[in-house]
């Protein structure tokens, strides 16, 4: 079905037609007819009562907790997909996930963070590392640049992205770029982003920053994910949290919420840790060969994701608090390898 679906009664389509339409939208084509219909309705914005997730004014319907509990699994999945949330898991998990999303919408706590700057700032509050546009030629042309230093006398030093030279300019000749600088991001910030690229390690998501961030497979959902394509598709909007901003200029994101932290890269809090040190951990979910655990640093705030191999643990319960040792830090993925067993000297 290559034609537009505008005005088409989706309920009247056959299973084959539904799968063709889903394939054209780059979506999964597996499942029963009701599930295919729900997914297609979510992707096209077609409302179908409560499961369609939209009111007559086009706003999302804010169902009560009782109404959410009464929805069928495919209806829950439909509403979660519309909000860019995972649709995998048992019904109880989907119900709680949707309830949390609706509660956030009601309280407006899930407001998107704007990549721009508030009006009235005058462009004066610049930081080293900010991506800006600056004027330094007589032709009044605005050049893309990066702030290298900020002085109290009203001048800003910038390095042109093309000229690659450092130039001192007045603040009035510097304005913010539309892109959000990594220097201004903080761990735990929430953004609404769009999936730009899929790789075997996960999904690259555009949050309006000067580079896309990677959501690794282990941080896509609170359960094991075998294929990222089963959870998200290109162009899909998703809620993400900043997981880490390492010094290598990369950006680590998570579709699992991580709380704010003063550290730009919480993983670094564990690099110098002794194998004999114990840390508090929270067992987030189980995987085929072990458990993913949120490990809290000794500062009591910074948290990094760790993997606990079944052979290096006493088989904890999901949702329990455990004491773990960090046996290895994988800088590339931002993952800690853990053990619950006592340290044995060689």
TrEMBL record:
Domain S1 motif: 188-256
GO-annotated biological processes: translation
Domain SAP stretches: 10-44, 68-102
Alphabetized Gene3D superfamilies for the sequence: 2.30.30.140, Nucleic acid-binding proteins, SAP domain
A GO MF term: mRNA binding
PROSITE patterns in alphabetical order: S1, SAP
Residue ranges of the region described as Disordered: 106-126
Listed name of the protein: SAP domain-containing protein
